[in-house]
Amino acid sequence: MDLRRLQGILEAAPARRILVIGDLMLDEFVWGKVGRISPEAPVPVVEVTGESFYPGGAANVARNLREFSENVAVVGMIGRDRTGDQLRQLLAAEKIDIVGSVEEKDFRTIVKTRIIARHQQVVRVDREQIVGPSLGQIASVVAAVQKKLPEIDAIIFEDYGKGFLTADLVTEITRHARAANKIVTADPNSRNLIEWTDMTAVKPNRAEAFLAAGIPWRDPDESPQDHADLVRAGNALLEKWKVENVLITLGEYGMMLFQKNGQPHHIPTKARQVFDVSGAGDTAIALFTLALACGATAIEAAEIANHASAVVVGKLGTATVSRSELLASFEHDFD
């Protein structure tokens, strides 16, 4: 894909309207330095120098989309607590709509705290309550999404395995969205084995793909396109889920795209340095879906997602990629 084609795709992005549905959380980063080992236990003492807060989980997918699109909404479950208020404020500041989300007074908003010292993650602390929506809440969300369908171009299901995405919710929304000819994609989680049937695309990582396909996973000792088990897993998922595309992310090996009516296509990684993989999958599904909504082919969308992921892994924290950074990554590739 040349730069002119990329620019044409990105020029369509601001007008695209994307809805993200999934597990919402608050990402907290505690920054510091290590100068000594604790006398109480053989662990480092981190002297805190600062804190940062970002929308996390499905909200981070929405945050990635907002770098390119002016109309982004997210639906999930938020508690009526201090961290829930903080998450709402962060989303409002980014102009991300949360209308249709479930606000539950007995639900504790999920928080992931990462303690970083000298560019290294020392420890992560998760405060989470895995609770699924009630039947009444599912009906309310489905109705809200159905009402919003004429105003959106694509839906992303972002599953962090925290309970919000249930089989009934996914099936109902997908049925209505596909009947309305909307793009529907999913970023699955191995702890929540939903059948992602009849979607435009599903983006598992390698471990998730092998698990869903029922194929024993092993470290590859050959290039992805020659890895027979990987090819078998991708083709099996195309058939199992009856989807148009399966995009398997492969870490340092890039991505492999499987298409309903095409040969597997390997896209080597573009990452030049890796500081933090937090949120790389969020960026991949966000840019892949957005590109499809802008008229890109599945291969073009996968190339864009691959470059975008390469940019964010070179940053610390739950990061996003900007239009200029994405263009620069492609320009570097051409150079």
List keywords for this structure.
UDP-N-acetylmuramoyl-L-alanine:D-glutamate ligase; 36% helix; alpha/beta; four-stranded mixed β-sheet; eight-stranded mixed β-sheet; 335 residues
Description of the structure:
The chain is an alpha/beta fold. It has a single domain, classed as UDP-N-acetylmuramoyl-L-alanine:D-glutamate ligase. About 35% of the residues lie in helices and about 25% in strands. The protein has 10 helices and 14 strands. The protein has helices spanning about 5-10, 60-65, 80-95, 135-150, 165-180, 205-215, 230-240, 280-295, 300-310, 325-335, and strands at about 15-20, 25-35, 45-55, 70-75, 75-80, 100-105, 110-115, 120-125, 155-160, 185, 200, 245-250, 255-260, 265. The strands form 3 sheets. It has an 8-stranded mixed β-sheet with strand order 4-1-9-10-11-12-13-14, sandwiched between helices. A 4-stranded mixed β-sheet has the order 3-2-7-8. Helix 4 (about 135-150) runs parallel beside helix 5. The longest helix is centred in the C-terminal third of the chain and has 15 residues, at about 300-310. The radius of gyration is 20 Å and the shape is globular. The mean pLDDT is about 90.
- State the strand order across the main sheet: 4-1-9-10-11-12-13-14
Radius of gyration: 20 Å
Helix content: 25-40%
Number of helices: 10
Number of strand segments: 14
Give the CATH class: Alpha Beta
For the record, the CATH architecture stands as: 3-Layer(aba) Sandwich
Give the overall average pLDDT.
91
CATH homologous superfamily title: Ribokinase
**CATH third-tier fold name:** UDP-N-acetylmuramoyl-L-alanine:D-glutamate ligase
Instruction: Identify the overall geometry.
Output: globular
Poorly predicted tracts of residues:
none
Beta content comes to 25-35%
Q: Please summarize the sheet with the most strands.
A: 8 strands, mixed
Task: Provide the domain count.
Answer: 1
Q: What pattern of helices and strands is seen along the backbone?
A: HEEEHEEHEEEHEHEEHHEEEHHH
- SS-derived structural category: alpha/beta
What separation lies between the terminal Cα atoms?
14 Å
